[in-house]
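Example record

The entry below shows one chain as it appears in the dataset: sequence first, then structure tokens.
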Amino acid sequence: MRIEKFDFPGSRGQRLAALLDLPLDGRPSAYALFAHCFTCSKNVKAAHHLCRALTREGIAVLRFDFTGLGESGGNFAETGFRSNVDDVIAAARALATAYEGPRLLIGHSWGGAAVLQAAPAVPSCRAVATLAAPYDPRDVFRFLGSAAQEISARGEAEVPIGGRPFLLRRKFLEDLEGLDPERTIRELNRALLVLHAPEDETVDITHAQRIFETARHPKSFVALAGADHLLSNPADSRYAAAVIAAWARRYLGSETLPEAPDEAAPRPITARTAAGGLLTEIHVQRHHLVADEPIALGGTDQGPSPFDLLIASLGACTAMTLRMFADRKGWPLEAATVRLRHEKIHAAACAECETREGWIDRIRRDIELEGPLDAEQRTRLLAIADRCPVHRTLTGEVNIVTRLREAGAPEEPEA
């Protein structure tokens, strides 16, 4: 994904710091908005993995810091739940002005309660997803303890939250008065996905149960078994992100197939890595893939390796070629399975190879043909496998032209 700064004026005119995560080709099929947890920031792990998963689906995501938090301006002590809701609405408006309104609102914990409240004021919103969200934001009172009485009596108090001190004022408490979460959720009138960990010790799973039971259909619930409140384990945040991305397709109108081109043309392919590892995002027209390396080789094993993808392309091309040939001949091929293995061998071990020194690549390809084919048909199909275009490319002469190109520069036409 590509990340751009996207600061915008908040509900009171203060500058709110934001990042816009874009698909690799920069052409989103839809936009989403992410609101972070209480006293967190736009850079929490859950947000990062969520944005990566959605951008792979072609969905751009705007994540921002609430007033007085992270890199945003304003005074946190002057904020409250309603101002956070107003910040969500301001973010949606800024996105709509610059690009288009968000169709998906996502909120983590406190941010989940905020997007539920804000959704009716965002006309473009079609779906809402919450992560570890409280049914009632007034649940925060139990974390304040005696500080709640001190705030009421003195007008303010310093409260430790997540190991850091935050100044809360009476307005914070007053801001939570008069909320009607039952009505808010019942009248949401958007598709809803509720994700929550049964073991969450910060916001109990019963909150998710009440949200789900109160909401009207379409609604879905996913248990994040084994996860903590902040989804601090990367595997948990990646899983939640993948679920939201898959679920959102149905409601964002981003699955429409493109019109067939007038004639076949080469499809540009883009591969991009960023700081922090070998994970590589690959974009092929409207399709998004990832490549990585095993942990032992310095990767995070979130996808196949480049060699895996290369060998897989040979397998896919072989199977397709066999299918097309059999269909054209009218032969009863029911299924073709191609299994491949790549290895490095010493050149001397290959009797038919021209190279006699050093190491060479060997690809073992086993083909299984299902269906009532006779011996002649099977022999012919085995020979046809070598005529697969990828096979011929790998065994033929390949000319690779590499050029250095400035970031953002338009693509140069082929000479």
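Notes for this example: DSSP finds twelve helices and 17 strands in the chain. The chain has a mean pLDDT of 87.
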